[in-house]
């Protein structure tokens, strides 16, 4: 069962939220963060990307950089740019993209639930990335940014959220750059808090949608603090980490596509002929072609688009991993034909989130940077949850969620 609790969030005053709020730390590089924060001392980038306060080229993993994050976090509180709520609360966070709104509940997720598998993951994590985020949590003694969870749809929770969404929000703004809407309400009514806690307690599991490294880091730091405390009871704030939980049906996974630098010694014609062993190959001309269904792929090569449809017998519908298009393409195209064995480490391949559009694939191939592009039909939330429930792990670079959570709307302190 899923254990959650409300918490006393640390939040910007309403008049400052647009100055404080930022994109997540891992969706932009240091130069981009430096540019976005230029002239804005209140930007959360000074905490989550503190290398921007050092000369260009400073290693973001330098001990001085982590120390600067903590210094800036204290300054935000001292200056009143982040102010702690008086009451423990849950929060409603709504995101609007392309006319569609999804409503999440901001909660304290339970560290032991992550450790015992009640919070389910679908991706592997890298220890170096975990350690980076663990250092950030340790030095700030806080979860500065939330993780992104999904939960099985629940009508009672929908009704509670709808009541708050009908009221004037605490925050309501359009983020610069992406144009997505972000709206926020505080749930501090004791009866509603109790009802939300009770509904989550009936759920067999929560699912990490995005933020596997942040989830691991937050849980591992919480477990560290428990082990270091001889008077540990189990109800301390460090036993919880901040998550935004959305009903699964409201979420959309978009495509996560591949571009490759070369054809492993094959000519265009040889490559297309080799593909025809496992796929029905159809030329689609110069207009962008988007995959139309599962097991249909879009290929861009030599200025032309192709439809690839996996032939019967090349996948097993009863295998939750083998049936995935990312598995089919990795096995039959990237590995067998192009010699790319490890998606995590091979420098010949790069990945492009579908939010950039298929035009980005064409651009990178036409520029000569890449030789071929492959677009995939997106994974469904049902596939993700089925795989997580089965204890399996998806191949790398399978899911891309949009919109991303805005950081800085609320922070969770561990004391």
Task: Describe the overall structure.
With 415 residues, the protein is an alpha+beta fold. 31% of the residues lie in helices and 24% in strands. It contains 13 helices and 21 strands. The protein has helices at residues 17-20, 30-36, 45-48, 63-78, 111-116, 127-140, 155-165, 190-201, 212-228, 268-275, 325-335, 358-366, 381-389, and strands at residues 4-5, 10-11, 83-84, 90-97, 100-110, 119-120, 142-143, 147-151, 171-174, 181-187, 206-210, 240-247, 253-254, 256-260, 279-285, 296-301, 304-310, 349-353, 372-375, 400-401, 412-413. The strands form 5 sheets. Strands 1, 4, 5, 6, 8, 9, 10, 11 and 12 form a 9-stranded mixed β-sheet that branches. A 6-stranded antiparallel β-sheet has the order 15-17-16-19-14-18, with helices on both faces. It starts with a strand and ends with a strand. The mean pLDDT is 96.
- Describe the sheet with the most strands: 9 strands, mixed
Helix/strand structural class: alpha+beta
The percent of residues in helical segments reads 25-40%
- Number of helical regions: 13
- Quaternary state of the chains: single chain
Number of strands: 21
Terminal CA distance reads 25 Å
Q: What gyration radius follows from the Cα positions, in whole Å?
A: 23 Å
Estimate what percentage of residues fall within beta strands.
15-25%
What is the 3D form? Answer: globular
pLDDT averaged residue by residue: 96
Unreliable spans:
none
């Amino acid at each position: 069962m899923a254990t959650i609790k409300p918490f006393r969030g640390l939040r910007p005053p309403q008049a400052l939220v647009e100055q404080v709020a930022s994109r997540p730390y891992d969706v932009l590089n240091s130069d981009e963060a430096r540019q976005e924060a230029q002239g804005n001392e209140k930007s959360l980038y000074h905490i989550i990307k503190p290398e921007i306060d050092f000369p260009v080229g400073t290693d973001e993993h330098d001990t001085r950089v982590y120390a600067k994050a903590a210094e800036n976090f204290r300054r935000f509180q001292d200056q009143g740019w982040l102010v702690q709520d008086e009451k423990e609360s849950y929060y409603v966070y709504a995101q609007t993209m392309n006319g569609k709104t999804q409503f999440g509940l901001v909660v304290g997720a339970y560290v032991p639930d992550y450790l015992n598998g009640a919070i389910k993951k679908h991706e592997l994590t890298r220890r170096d990335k975990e350690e980076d985020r663990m250092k950030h949590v340790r030095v700030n003694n806080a979860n500065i940014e939330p993780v992104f969870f999904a939960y099985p749809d629940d009508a009672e929770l929908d009704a509670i959220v709808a009541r708050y969404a009908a009221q004037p929000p605490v925050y309501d703004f359009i983020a610069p750059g992406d144009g997505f809407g972000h709206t926020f309400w505080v749930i501090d009514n004791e009866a509603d808090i109790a009802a939300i806690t009770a509904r989550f307690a009936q759920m067999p599991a929560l699912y990490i949608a995005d933020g596997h490294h942040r989830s691991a880091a937050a849980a591992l730091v919480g477990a560290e603090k428990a082990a270091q405390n001889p008077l540990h009871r189990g109800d301390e704030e460090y036993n919880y980490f901040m998550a935004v939980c959305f009903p699964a049906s409201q979420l959309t996974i978009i495509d996560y596509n591949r571009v490759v630098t070369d054809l492993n010694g094959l000519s265009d014609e040889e490559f297309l002929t080799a593909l025809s062993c496992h796929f029905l190959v159809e030329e689609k001309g110069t207009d962008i072609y988007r995959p139309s269904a599962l097991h249909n792929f879009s290929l861009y090569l030599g200025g032309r688009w192709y439809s690839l449809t996996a032939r019967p017998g090349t996948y097993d519908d009863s295998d939750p991993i083998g049936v995935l298009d990312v598995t089919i393409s990795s096995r039959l195209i990237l590995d067998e034909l192009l010699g790319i064995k490890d998606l995590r480490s091979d420098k010949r391949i790069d990945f492009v989130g579908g939010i950039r559009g298929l035009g980005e694939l064409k651009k990178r191939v036409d520029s000569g940077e890449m030789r071929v592009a492959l677009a995939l039909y997106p994974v469904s939330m049902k596939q993700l949850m089925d795989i997580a429930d089965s204890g399996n792990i998806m191949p790398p670079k399978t899911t891309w969620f949009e919109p991303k959570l805005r950081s800085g709307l609320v922070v969770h302190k561990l004391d």
